[in-house]
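Reading a protein record of the kind used here takes little practice once its layout is understood. The fold follows as a row of integers, each naming the local backbone shape at the matching residue. With these conventions in mind, the following record can be read line by line:

_____
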Amino acid sequence: TTPSPAPPSGNFYARWSARTNAIQSKQPAWPPPLATTYTGLFQVVRTDMVRQIAPKGTYTWNFDNSKCVSFITPGNLEFDIDLPPYIKHNTTAVDGWGDFSFLAKYRIASGNAKHGAYTLSVWALTTVPTGQAKNGSTNASVQPNLGAGKGFGNFDVQSTIGATLPTGNPATNASGRPVIWNTVAQYKIGKLFWPELESNATFFKGGPNDGKTQEFITPGIIIGKCALHPGDKQSRPGLAFGGGMQIAASHFHSYNHSVILTARWIY
């Protein structure tokens, strides 16, 4: 009789970790930027805090900023589950929870530092109208995206483009179908420091801002990954932190000097 194959060694997490390491070993080791969506596959628990200042001087805090957990599966796939953010105003507007969202990403092609240092992915972000007291949209929306990146030694550039497509009115009348184009340049200093500069542009199509463009220049830095077991190269758990500020670069802008803080548990 043919002997049965030996069962995989280690517990579930050890097998999952090894599989994730193998998938990510085929792409560059860049950190996800502050605002631009990462163009490779990443597995992380993440939370952000964002403070936006409106032209009249009022400000809004966004706790979590629609971030939560992402995980990688076989087949070059990533799935993100984003919990609703909590929106806090310093005006008469009512505080409350925003919209729930989830993302599915497929990595089309990639190469690590020894094989071209590049990424090419597509993904779709779906938002569900769960917001309270006008802190979210009135309709669900789908946002298809295309992203690519290229590395040159310690330097890399990643760029993404997509469009937010509401599924019905009144959201379509209120926001139109904006096109979002983000680009980030990152440079690695030492083992942990990744200063970056982003361009975050929105081109409004339809709605009250039809034809207008809103752009921010975002200087920032990512620190990490700070490995919990630095002596074990196969160990995944670690922490990363970062911060930056979105500075309006266009005449039209709904806010300015937006502070972004991020904390990430890489597992």
About this structure: The chain is about 5% helix and 50% strand.
